[in-house]
## 1
Amino acid sequence: MNDMRAQLAIVLLLIVSSVCLAPDRAQPDLLLFHGHVITMDPTAPSAQAIAIAGDRIIWVGTDAAAQKLFPSVKNKVDLHRATALPGIIDAHTHLFELGKSLLRLNLKGVATEEEAVARVRERVRSVPPGEWILGWGWDEGKWAAHYPDNDALSRAAPNNPVYLVGLHSFAAWANKRALAIAGVTATTKDPDNGRIVRDEKSGEPTGILLNRAQELVESHVPAMSLEQTKKAIELAAQECVRNGLTSVHEARVSPVMIQAYRELLREDRLPLRIFAMLDGADPALVQEWLSRGPEIDPTHRLTIRAFKLFADGALGSRGAALLAPYSEAPQTKGVVTTPQAAIYDLTRRSLEKGFQVCTHAIGDGANHFTLDAYAQALRETPSAHDPRLRIEHAQVLAAEDIPRFAQLGVIPSMQPTHCTSDMGWAEKRVGAERVKGAYAWQSLLKTHVHLPLSSDFPGETLNPFYGIYAAITRQDIQGNPAGGWYPEQRLTLDEALRGYTREGAYAEFEEKEKGALQSGKLADLIVIDKDITQLESRPKEILSIRVLKTFIGGKLVFDGSAPSRQGP
Ligand SMILES: [Zn+2]
C-alpha cells in the first residue's frame, strides 16, 4: 500500500470509529436490564443490560450505564437477575425427524391395549377415511409377554390403515386395513431377520410385525406431502425454541425440506435459523447445487453451503468402520458406506465451488480415510478459501489422527450425550487401548481445534443442558460412573458453553454474526432460571435448568415465564 492510501485508510478508520462512539447513538427498540448476562465475549465476559435495535445487539453493559445512555426506551424487559446466555447453536440436528415424531400419535407411556386403541379411535375422528394413522411409543419390551392382536384396533379404525411403531422400533402393530394394503396374508413368508406374528390356529397375521417384518407395511406408508413436511418442521422448530435453541445445523437436507423451509420462512412460521447440509448421497441434488453455488442468506435465516456424507455406520450396531477388527467381534471391522475416493471427489468439487463438506465418521478407520480424503482435496485445491471441512461425530480416533484435525483445519463436530449414551458398551466394542481415543474432546481441544457441540436430536434429547451436563461430567443423569467415564476428557463449563455458542457459529461461518452477546451481533439470546456459572460443582442442577425466554433476531419467540394458558 502506498503512503497516500495508507493515510486515507487511517482517516476513514477514524471517521468510522468516531461515528460508532458518538454519544447520540441509535436508540434501542428493546432494552433488557437487571440481568446476569454471560456474554461469551472474553473481553467483557459479563454484563447486566443489553440494548437491541432491529435484529441486532447495539450495546452491552451495566444497568447504570444503560440508564444514562437510554433513559427513554419504551420497550424494557426486567430480567429480575435471571441469567442470559447467547442463543444455543446446535451444530448437528435432525429437525424434520423430530417433527415427524411429533406428528405421529404419541403412545409413550400407554399401559394397555385398550388405552392405545382409545387414542386411535379419538384420532380417527379428525382424519379423513383412507388416510394413514401413524403412531409411535407403545413399549414392545413390556408388552412382549402378551402382544395384542388387531381385532380391537381394526374395529376402532375400519376405514383407515393404522401403523403403530414400538418405542424402540423393534416391533410394529398394524390393523387389518394396513395389512391388506401391504398384501400381508397368511401365506406371506417371514422376511430375513423378521417375523410376522400369526394366530396359532388360523395362521392369519395378528398385526404384530417384528424387526425387519415391519418393512412389509412401512414401505406402503405414503411419503409426506409438502404441507405435512412443513407442519413437521414447524412443530420441531417450536420445540427447539422452547429448549433455548436459536440456530440448528440440519444434517442431511432433501429438496422437499428446502422447499418447506423457504415456504415456512415466507409465511413467517419458522423462527429458528437453519444451516442446511445438503444430502451428498443424492447425485442430482449435488449436481444442481454445485452448478448454482452456495446460498448464503444475508438475513442469516437459511444458509445452504454444505454437503453431508456418511463414511460409515454406528458403533452400537458394529457399523462403524474401524482400522482393526472389533474387540468382541474379530470377524468384522464394520462397514464403509462412502469410500475414500468418493469423499475425496465430492470434497474437491465442493472446495472449488465454495461448499463445506460435513462427513459422518464414527470409527477410527472412517475418520482416518476421511482425513486422508480431505487432505488430498485440500492439497489439490489451494485456491479454496477458508474451507472449514467438518467430521460429524469423530467418535473413535486413532492417536496419530488426533493432531491431524488441527493441522488440516478440520472441525470435529461432536455430541456429548453420545458419549454418555454409549459409555456402557463402547469399551467392549473397541477395547481398552482404542477407547482412549473415543469421545476424546480434551485430547482434540489440546491441539487447538474448534469444537462445536450438538445433540443429534431426536436420537438424543434436544435439551442443551443435558449436553452441557454430559460434557462436563461424562456421567449419566444418575451421576454414574462416580468421577466420570475417562474423566480426563471432560470439558470445563466454559469450554462446553463455548461449544454450544461460539464454536457452533464458527462451524457455520457465522462467528461474526452470532455465538456471543456483543454489540453488532444478531440479538439471539436466551434467559434461563438458574445461574449456570455457579453449577460446575453441582452439575446435576444443570439438568433442571428451564428456559424462560428465547429471543431470535431481537424477537421474543418463546416466553416460558408467562403464566401458562388455562384450558378453553
Ligand atoms: Zn445425525
## 2
Amino acid sequence: MSDEFTSIDNARERLASVGYLADEPASLVSFLAGRLGKPVLVEGPAGVGKTELAKAVSRATGRHLIRLQCYEGLDEAKALYEWNYRKQLLRIQTEAADTGWQQVKDDIFGEEFMLARPLLHAISAEEPVVLLIDEIDKTDQEFEALLLEVLSDFQISIPELGVIEARTHPLVLLTSNNSRELTEALKRRCLYLWLDYPTIERELEIVHLHAPELDQAVARKLVEVIHMVRSLDLKKPPSIAESIDWARALLLLGAEDVDQAVLERTMSIIIKHRTDLDLVAERVGVKLGDGLFGRQAG
Ligand SMILES: Nc1ncnc2c1ncn2[C@@H]1O[C@H](COP(=O)(O)OP(=O)(O)O)[C@@H](O)[C@H]1O
Ligand SMILES: [Mg+2]
C-alpha cells in the first residue's frame, strides 16, 4: 500500500501510528511535500529526529526507503551511477576483431553496463519511493549543484544514454546538521523544516514511547534534567537519542529517582565530552544534591 497524506492531521496521526511524534510544522511539511511534489530540507542539531522523520514517512506511506548517506568527497559515481568498467572490458574483449568502434560503443554504453546508485535507483523505481539524502552538509557545493537536476526536474542526464526521467515521483527528504550554510539554489527548490530540541512535554511523550515501562515521575525528572543540561554551554548537548538511551538505562538499573548519585553514575550516557562532564557534575549534579532542582527547572 502506498498512499499520500491527505491532511496535516492525517500526516500527524499516521506518523504517530508508526512511532514518530511529529509536531505541527513537521506534520505540515510531510503533508505538503507529497501534495506539492517538492523536496523537504530538514535542518537542526544532531539527534532531534531528522533521519527518523524520513524513515517514519516511508513506513507511514508504505513507500520503500532509498537512502543516500552523504560524506566528504561523495561524488557522482557513488550517488548517481557508474559505468561497470569490468563488464565493459569483458564485452570489448569478446567482440569480434572486425567490429567497428561505433558498434562497440553502442554495445557498452547501454543500461546493462550501468551500476545504479541511490539517486538513479530512486528516479527509476517502478513504485514511488521515499528518498532520504542524509547529512547533505557533509558534501561540498559541487555535489549540491549535481543534485539540482534531480530535485527540480526529477531526472538525470547521462551523456551516453540521454535523459532518464522519473517513472514515479519520489518523496525526497534532505537532512542537514547545519555544519555549513547550504546554497540558495538548493534551498529555493525545497520546503524547509527546522527541527529543534522538543519541549519538555513532547520529549516526555517521545521518551514514553521508547521506554514505556519507565515510571512517569522518573521520566519527567529525567527530561527536566536533560533540558537543564542543554541550557548549559556544552560542546555537545544531549539529544533526544541520549534522552531515550538514558531512560532505558535507568529502567534497567531500577532507578527510582534522578538524584545526584544517579546522575553521577550514569552521566556518560548523555554527556560525551570530558569538559562537559565536569561542567554538568558541577552545575546540575550539585543542584540535584541540594534539593534545589525542582524549584529551578520546574
Ligand atoms: N518525534 C520523534 N518521535 C519519536 N522518536 C523520535 C522523535 N524524534 C527523535 N526520535 C528518536 O530520536 C533518535 C534520534 O533521531 P535521529 O533521526 O537519528 O536524529 P538526527 O537524524 O536528527 O540526528 C531516534 O532514535 C528517534 O527514534
Ligand atoms: Mg541523522
